[in-house]
Amino acid sequence: MLTEYYHAARYGAALAEMDWYGILKLTGSERASWLQGMVTNDVQKLAPGSGCYAAHLTPQGKIVAQMHILADEDALWLSLERTALPKLVQAFNKLLIMEDAQVEDCSEQFDILSVVGPRAIAVLETWLDEAVKLEGLYSHRSFDGGRVVVSDLGYELWIQRGQADKVLRSLSQMGATAIERGAWDVLRTEAGIPIYGVDIDETTTMPEIGEKGISYNKGCYIGQEVVAKVKYIGHVNRRFVGLTLPGSDIPELKSPIYKGAKEVGTVTTSLFSPGLERPIALGFVSRSAYAPGTEVEILSGAKRLSATIVDLPFRV
């Protein structure tokens, strides 16, 4: 089934129910100015209908949660992994003092559907019975009963809770193939997208996964000094990378990565890529090994598997 699902996502239209994501809603007259001091990206420059990727950090610069922030006329919407949601809500509640900003967990009000593939736009427009009319990553607009968002992999539909099955059936009748979480994971892995609780956590700093989501021109925010210091130094001590492997062995999760006799990193995600026709992995490696083209070995159980460091996203 994975081959069928993957083919739909690469050459047709595929949809997945993203029940591992939750949604927060921020309201109040000071929501943007308050959130500006909480996250790594520039929220105050967002016009209604636009969005950005960002993270909330600890004072030590570690990631509490990564998120996509969408701006509306009267609210800011945050979508993020449910594994990080309780910690983020707790942190926000502690940091809200006198500001006119309210945080509401809307996770049980919506279902999020991922719609991907070259025919995704045609399927959505047929279902909506109107043009999507969205340009730019994280641009979005509401419609009767939900919201459509341009995502990293294609599009997302935010649907009122309880309507997901009906919408899934409708989209399937219009030519989209419903896929499982495993197939979606292949797509996000090939795209080099880290998942909180799988690839990244509170041991990860934002610069280790790249500069996407960081504004160096905005005002102060929690953890900024650590992020700015890395920028000033000019490099990180470890980096989130891709690895390709010959053969058919898929390394075990948490397998150590070696360069020669020295341990230089860890595998966080591993699977078979139908697009590359080989096993691939995501993980963190130290500065001595993170240059693309570096040959390493992964100790997976009793096996030593050869691997090559590559830039993300993978070239599928």
Q: What is the distance, rounded to the nearest whole angstrom, between the alpha carbons of the first and last residues?
A: 20 Å
Compute the CA-based radius of gyration. 20 Å
Strands, total number: 17
Tell me the number of helical segments per DSSP (H or I, 4 or more residues long): 7
Question: How would you sum up the global shape?
Answer: globular
**Helix/strand/pairing category:** alpha+beta
As laid out across the biggest beta sheet, the strand order is 8-9-10-7-1-11
Nearest-integer average pLDDT: 96
- Secondary-structure element pattern, one letter each: HEEHEEEHEEHEEEHEHHEEEEEE
Largest β sheet strand count, sense and barrel closure: 6 strands, mixed
Identify low-pLDDT runs.
none
Fraction of residues in helices?
10-25%
- What share of residues are in beta strands? 25-35%
